[in-house]
Specification:
Strand order of the largest sheet: 8-7-6-9-10-11-12
CATH topology of the largest domain: Rossmann fold
Shape: elongated
Number of helices: 12
CATH architecture of the largest domain: 3-Layer(aba) Sandwich
Order of helices and strands: EHEHEHEHEHHHEHEEHEHEHEEH
CATH superfamily of the largest domain: NAD(P)-binding Rossmann-like Domain
Helix content: 25-40%
Oligomer: single chain
Radius of gyration: 22 Å
Structural class: alpha/beta
Number of strands: 12
Strand content: 15-25%
Largest sheet: 7 strands, parallel
Distance between the termini: 31 Å
Number of domains: 2
């Protein structure tokens, strides 16, 4: 039985990767110039293009069975429609976890070690009083960190925090335990933990439950939060509510890597808010994730060839992650 893979992310696969796929007996197709019959013969899609996927789903003759994404998030997919067509979807959760986690630690240390004061002092040719500077510094092990989400990214963050002697509290849908966390709570039972947090980190996937989760009601629980960090999905945060909390000194510092709208408009008030880092969805950045992505694809390909199932990273289209 021949298996056809439509490559919608050619930049993610090297010549060696393509040869390895061919060696498995899989034919790699490119979207340009395909006939309707060739489109219908596609069993697997690697990457994503909404127009191409629509064409496949609209055809009653389509053989599409599986989509391997090159992203971790899936909130941009037509999940209900894919489920109706019984299409399996796998993501690359874990491929970007380490760089995102290291970026989160960098954001925290930038604030807890008051690096902005050093940068400003250098610009002003000013030698700061070290004792005065120390009053604005703190140790990570002294901070109560609460991480929303306990998946791969969150566990990588927790592991790095553990190295600083910090054992965070995790928040997830059911309150199930997770590696690296001192304890976990459910999303619906997080209020008491939030009220006493020093640092809150958002790594949540985007679902109906988590959309606008960090809203005015959430920030009303907070009176003295040191740092708020968001590296999950942009639509889980009400940016206006965060700005209000910062302007009323209930949230002192923040770092955002995901936003309601990307790129962030030039006239957004986020740009002018003091003590707020605006990162252009750059925390996953690293020259080296493609081999990890291919490893996930290859494992799934081998399993798919054997019995039509996936070995790893299959997402639940009903739950949205």
């Amino acid at each position: 039985m021949s298996i056809n893979l439509l490559n919608l992310a050619p930049g993610k696969l090297s010549a060696t990767d393509l040869q390895a796929i061919t060696n498995l007996g899989v034919t790699v197709l490119n979207p340009t110039g395909l006939t309707p019959a060739q489109f219908d013969s596609v069993d697997i899609v690697f990457g994503w293009n909404g127009d191409v996927i629509d064409q496949l789903l609209n055809s009653s003759q389509s053989n599409l069975k599986w989509i391997q994404l090159t992203s971790a998030g899936i909130d941009y997919l037509p999940l209900k429609r894919l489920a109706e067509h019984h299409i399996m979807v796998s993501n690359v959760s874990g491929a970007y976890s380490q760089p995102i986690a290291e970026s989160v630690i960098a954001f925290i240390l930038f604030y807890t070690r008051d690096l902005s004061a050093l940068l400003t002092a250098k610009q002003n040719h000013s030698w700061l009083d070290k004792n005065e500077l120390a009053t604005h510094m703190s140790l990570l092990k002294q901070q109560k960190v609460v991480i929303f989400g306990t998946g791969s990214i969150a566990q990588h963050i927790a592991k790095l925090l553990n190295g600083f002697g910090n054992f965070p509290v995790g928040i997830n849908h059911s309150g199930h335990p997770a590696d690296g966390f001192s304890s976990t709570e459910t999303l619906t039972n997080a209020a008491d933990v939030v009220k006493t947090a020093d640092i809150i980190i958002n790594t949540l996937p985007l679902t109906a439950e988590t959309t606008d989760y960090f809203n005015a009601d959430f920030f009303d629980l907070i009176q003295d939060l040191n740092i708020f960090i968001s590296v999950g999905r942009g639509k889980s945060l009400d940016q206006t509510a965060l700005l209000s909390a910062m302007r009323t000194n209930r949230v002192h510092r923040a770092a955002l890597d995901v936003f309601q709208q990307e790129p962030v408009p030039a006239d957004s008030p986020l740009w002018d808010q003091p003590n707020l880092i605006v990162s252009p969805h750059a925390t996953p950045g690293i020259d080296g994730t493609n081999p990890i992505i291919f490893d996930i694809l290859e494992k799934n390909l081998r399993q798919f060839i054997v019995d039509g199932t996936l070995a790893t990273n299959q997402v639940d289209l009903q739950r949205g992650y």
